[in-house]
Predict the structure.
Amino acid sequence: MRKICLTVVGLYLMMLHAFSQFTAKDTTVYQPRPLKIDEINLVSSYYKQDGNHSPVTGGIGSEKVTDIANGLDIKWVGWDQKNRKNTLTAGIGYDHHTAASQAYVSKTGASQTGGTRIYPSLNWNIENEKKGTGFGLGAYYSTEYNYKSIGLDAEFSKKTKNNGEFTARLTGYFDKVKLIYPSELIPVSTNTSASSSGDGHSKNIPSSPRYTYTASFSFEQVINKRMQVSVMTDLIAQNGYLGLPFHRVYLNSGADVVENLPNTRYKLPLGVRLNYFVGDNVILRSYYRYYTDSWGIVSHTANLEVPVKLSPFFSVSPFYRYYVQSAARYFAPYGTHTSQDQYYTSNYALSGFTSQFFGAGIRLSPPKGIFGTHLNSLEIRYGHYTQTTDLVSDVISVHLQFK
Amino acid sequence: MNMQTRVKLLMAPLACILLASCAHVKEYQKSRINDSEMSLSSRKVEKNEQNFQSYREGAAGANGGKTGGGCGCN
């Protein structure tokens, strides 16, 4: 009897001991972190161009253009209660250009030569680092004197187990082209009271829609410790008014008309990037793109950039780009199209040509910022561009990144 | 040769490169891969260059930049 009692007491004490191993209250529960500014980027470029094939004057005339383009974006990063990384990016762009040929929207050369474009944007992205998935939405707006645009996109990404990542994005642009015709070609039905610019245009200029839909796919893969590659493609469909109403075409009869292009266009570019780290200080950044579209253009682009790291924080990057394209089937030079042609343009951007672009950039990014400030990196880049159409341009760009 | 055949011929060698035994690279071995100059996207400083090229050329896309629409340039 005593043995039974002792056994029962012993068992009872063992049970009590088992339940005494309680888990201490978890004080390390994940706390969400609100959005905080992670980085600020400022990119500015000065662009200067000259040539002799302005589409405003039918494929002849000055193509002199200067453009100052500026973009600012601010990125906020935070983590939500489910430990997902949220990124919000707000951007604004401001471009101002002057174009000599723009004066000849008016037959007398009295049209304004300058123009300004403002384009804000907003992007939100949420990433689950544990699952390797990401989702994002974007909204875009652009306004300039002859064009308004609203854009939307949605993106999905997924990392693979072996250092790969797949991304898909759907984008739509819903645009309106203001139908500013050459002064001598304004439709008779339009009220043509003179405006302050002296070009004879009505104040109530109608617009025509242009829609662009893009499905983008890309796949990145780390090949080994020194090499990684990506392949990209976009499936692009455009419909609506796809030319520009102030582009003239001079027929072989001497008469001038507004360029007339099909109201649909399908584009298919395929691109490959391959980056390779040679030795300890040199990187090869290569890129190739094949392009074809329903207007008959086929092109090839090849680009090679060779950053040389003179120190861990300073690099110099010379680059060279070669481009060749065949002409669109609707292109012909000044005075070549006939009145029998259904579609016609003398815009040399759609002609057959080759181009070369070369230059160099420098990049400075010390770990504690430049001079110990929040300026995390500074890049300056210059490039010289030439086409076999005699178009020549120079561009210099600066990128400041603050963290 | 139609467009579909051209696309397949172009993508086949690329697929071989990707599917060929990629070395499994651990996080601590990625010091070169993670270098900022090794990024597979275009540099931010190139953004306006790509725009100017798409205005003056017939091709666009497959580079993270413009594909059409968004401005009166294309």
Notes: Chain A touches chain B through 95 residues (CB under 8 Å).
